[in-house]
Amino acid sequence: MFNIVSKTYEGPFETLLDMVKENEIDSGQISVTEIVEEPKLGNVDEGSEFIVDAANLLYLKSKALLPKEEEKAGTQEEVDAKKLLEIYNKMKELAGDLEKKELKQKDIFYREQDMATVYAEETFKEATLYDLLVAFKSVLTYIPKDEVLSISREGITVRQKINEILDHINAVEKFEFTSFLKEQKTREHIITAFLAILEMIKLGLIACRHNAASNDIFISRKENGDNVR
Amino acid sequence: MEITFAKAVIECLLFVSDEPLEISRLKLVLEEMSEAEIRKAVTELQLDYETAGRPLCITEVAEGFSIVTREQYAPFIKKLFKTRVTHRLSKAALETLAIVACKQPITKLEIESLRGVSADGVLDTLYERELIRILGRKEVIGRPLLYGTTKEFLQYFGLKDLMELPKLEEINEVLGNGTWQTKNGMNGENAGVQGSFEQPK
After folding, report:
1. Number of domains present in the structure of chain A
2. Is the ipTM of this complex over 0.85?
């Protein structure tokens, strides 16, 4: 505990702090520099106490300096929170409705088309990036562990890979995405191959189709992309 | 084309199709008929099924029409397909789906700010079950994916279209008046790249 002496106040620091907190003294009237410039500190304990109190005082002062809109913002937040809660409750109700509908639908049967598998080859749809990513991810987890031991020195560029894939596709016409990636020797090759395929799709060299029935993604050559290299 | 014949054709088409057929798709087959005529034929066909007391009926679902079985025969069908277990959606999945249905296109963060919990796993499940799809990317920092519901969603819940959801309008009302501002400020227009900060008046 130590006393401070300034123009507006004389007494223990802590009492001053309390008074500021209780709004008995306007913090604007206290000069921080006056207090800080003449600390009569005896020991470490007093010093640390002084720092804590001074920091608190600074906090109170800076708070007083901020515009009063702060409080309004608080109520605005409350309104927002209320609104959010309202929306959330509505969503919950809707979820309940959906659940009832779901239950009812469980008793209504649609025709199931087994022919879909017969015509599997034809029921292609354009593969989305998401489809590719999912397949890519599954391949990455598939990589054998011992691959870690081999460090390949020769890097492979995406460009090289594109040429490799072009040669491959010219030979086989179309190939399955996942198994192609799995054939790659190393992780680096897999990633490069994946990037190469993405690049080739972007360049319009290949078409990428997703068979919904078997979940295979087929890469095939695009007719007009023949002489682009 | 004579209406009875047209009805027969439509019945065949609905029978062989494993997904709801829209009027526009029926029109591709029944070229000489107008969409209004096709709709009329479908409605008549619906009525025929109804009056004849068939175990099947023609239902309007997912913006199209489908031949489905009536509810009361479900126990027998379930007995036949004992091995086909379809898992019902979890509460979390239903809630997330409700949010996506109302606020689509919506990002994951926006869903999470409403529900207050992570939506990662739920969105994956919904995507796998083809109840939601990716509509594109939002042009804000990070270009997050935007999600929306699918036709399968409508079919799964036996809905004609999104407007059939009863609470949808009420929710949109709440959302509509004033800005739907979350703490993150991730609401559509306000989620600009600059992160515009609106000072409340």
Report:
1. 3
2. no
